[in-house]
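PROTEIN DATA CARD
Card holder: LLM class F420-dependent oxidoreductase
Chain length: 279
Origin: Pseudonocardia broussonetiae
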Amino acid sequence: MTVALGTYGIWRHAGGLTPDLAREIEALGFGAIWIGGSPLGDLALAESLLDATDGIAVATGIVNMWKTPAEEVAASYHRIEARHPGRFLLGVGIGHPEATSDYTRPYATIVDYLDALDTADVPVQGRALAALGPKVLKLSAERTAGAHPYLTTPEHTREAREILGAGVLLAPEHKVVVDTDPQRARATGRPFVHKPYLGLRNYTSNLLRLGWTEDDIADGGSDRLIDALVAHGDAGAVAARLAEHVDAGADHVCAQVLTEGFAEPLPPMRALAEALELS
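Structure generated from the sequence above:
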């Protein structure tokens, strides 16, 4: 059974997620919580968020294949599925070559990992794959419920939908800053784009493939690039930007809500939920 994610969710680094925040996110009407930052394969955090909530889905964005053997994460998946059936989506991915010393044969490694998940009876519809380029997007459609692209634009979403075809999950992440001052909003969002992502070739290659230039990527990203990757403005403007992904073919969009100086995220989450008419 495919996990029901709703149309909009929240993506947040594992270090910034707590059961209390999960309850608040659920109460706002978001359909899913995505655990970012390569969460541990024991999936203890996912289990604690599910334990604390009533019906919201929880997904990993993503468990790194290099860090956790498929057999270990499969055992964690089955433990969680038994406790919270139909509420957990296992997002897995290959990570970044710059972060892994033995990063060789990445595509073959993904295939081998998915083969191991098959052997461990993790269902296709219970897992998703981090995917940016055409080859891995196609693989996500063939071997998982679908794709979870990160650091993308609605233009990428449109291309991804054409590659995936109909009936395959497409759940992009998009960063947001609810702030009507463009300079301040860019100052809040740029660090979350610049480091590490503009130094990682899987992301920069994808941006170049989408038509951005080396100049756009240099020096922390041009204002034009930051504006494309970090939705900002009032909550209505941010909601409209997220809706562009849906119009381009996304089934679900997970918003990474960024705040100046790591301020409390709930106020902009509330404003965004209201603008999205979630409740």
